[in-house]
Amino acid sequence: MPSPTEITVQQLMRLIGTPDCPVLIDICIDEDFALDPRFVPGALRHPFKDIESLVPSFNGKKVIIICQKGLKLSQGAAAVLRCHGVEAESLEGGNFAWRDAGAPLVPANKIPERDAAGSSLWVTRHRPKIDRIACPWLIRRFVDPKAKFLFVSPGEVMNVSEKFNATPFDVEDVFWSHRGEGGELCTFDTMVEEFCLEIPALKHLAKIVRAADTDRLEDVPEA
User: Fold this and answer.
1) pTM score, two decimals?
2) Backbone dihedral region of 188: left (phi > 0), alpha (psi from -120 to 50 degrees) or beta?
3) 74 and 90 in contact (C-beta within 8 Å)?
4) Are strands 38-39 and 106-107 parallel, antiparallel or unpaired?
């Protein structure tokens, strides 16, 4: 049974990706993180010794602290935050328990480099429609809650990418784009696969996005 200041893996799994999901902070030390450089979906990495610096940014938000095993680091950091009036809990069993439960983990090397404010920066064509709406939603809910998105003229996407160090998506000849024969798999499909978000609901949503974006409405009625 978890303590009153812990949340179980099952409880957190029900919150991941929802508007009610708490702020997730991964405080694993570098040596532990290097052994398995993956994140609970939506978690942000921060040094445990500097946890108090985050207090102003929480502003009434609920926070979950995650370390490797859910012991001294996460419980201590959560307790420090509670001293500052933050509603903070630790994840019971930490990243090990999350992994052992078969819950999805996002590979750190697939997340673009973050800026000084801790945000990844993405760029795509302006006037977004289905795929270019779904992808930012996926990133914000499951990968990087602080991600920023630039929408520019189609001919300037790659130039903006170069000048502003932004990751291009849903344009031709880039990593984060359509795949498969004739581009039948959408950028949303690519992100679900590359971010290892093997969640049944997301896989079904990918079918809806794909059918709507490629005008194959007969494939999925919801499209």
Assistant:
1) 0.93
2) alpha
3) yes
4) antiparallel
pLDDT band at 182 (very low <50, low <70, confident <90, very high): confident
Side-chain half-sphere CA neighbours of 121 within 13 A: 14
Rounded Cα distance, 212 and 193, in Å: 19
- pLDDT at position 222 over 80: yes
Rounded to 5°, the CA angle 160-45-150 comes to 20
Residue 1 has a pLDDT of: 58
Written as six digits, the tokens of 14 are 């029900």
Structure tokens belonging to residue 155: 């001919």
Cα distances (angstroms) measured from residue 201 to each of 16, 40, 105, 146, 207: 12, 17, 16, 23, 10
- Tell me the pLDDT band of 4, cut-offs 50, 70 and 90: confident
Reading across the β-sheet that carries 44-45, which strands appear in turn? 6-7, 88-91, 63-66, 23-26, 44-45
Q: Using CA atoms of 20, 25, 26, 27 in order, give the dihedral in degrees to the nearest 10.
A: -150
C-alpha–C-alpha distance, residues 108 and 179, integer Å: 22
Coil vs helix vs strand at 7: strand
Q: How many CB atoms are located within 10 Å of the residue 160 CB?
A: 18
User: pLDDT tens-digit profile of 116-142?
Assistant: 888 999 999 999 999 999 999 999 999
b vs e for 177-205, b when ≥16 Cβ sit within 10 Å of the residue's Cβ?
bbeeeeeebbbbbbbbeebebebeebeeb
Residue 73 C-beta-side C-alpha neighbours within 13 Å: 22
Alpha carbon distances (Å) from 121 to 79, 148, 160, 201 = 32, 5, 11, 26
